[in-house]
Amino acid sequence: MSKTPGKPKGAALAAPQAPASRSADKGLMALQPSINGASVIEAYQGNVMGKDADISTMIDRLRETFKEVRGGDLHNLEAMLISQATALQTIFTSLARRAANQEHLRQYETFLGLALKAQSQSRATISALVDLKYPRQATFVKQANIAHGPQQVNNGTAVEAGMERSAQAHTHGKETEPEQNKLLEVDHGQSGSRLDTRAAQTAGRADPAMEAVGKVHRTKKPRG
Fold this sequence. Notes:
single chain; mainly alpha
């Protein structure tokens, strides 16, 4: 009786793939952009190339496009935007002609509104193409403020700046005492009060014309 030859020791056994592992793989594939894009294209392109279009070829071509864009080659995206803008322009022309042939106001407004929407989308696509072809460069302007002492920078409107300067001047006028009033004050510690400007002053010899009128033209009192 012959013995059945056994498997060598240490050989790995090929176990069937678990269902949980297949579900995880499908979940990862469902998140891939190439598969998502190809599945949507396959659902909508039936009346373009037919139902027998190979979805695997779509996925591979999308992945090649991803690599081109990553490397800085945007020729495929530029061609896509040009074709979309041209197609939208064709839709606009067709709907505008159909609107012109309508006899009722409601149908006329419907077709003309759709035509204008297609025109707006075509213009937006052209704008996106220009931005892709000639990117806008951001400009950073630095503000230099050169002054001696404290300063304040107001970036608001001219009206707001004028109102703020007026309020500051009004407040500054209240808080600052004129120098003329300070000169009229007696030094602290001597008299502690202001000079009395109402008191009569004796005229000096240097200016005799400023003498009191009463001394020059003094009335004579009757002697009793």
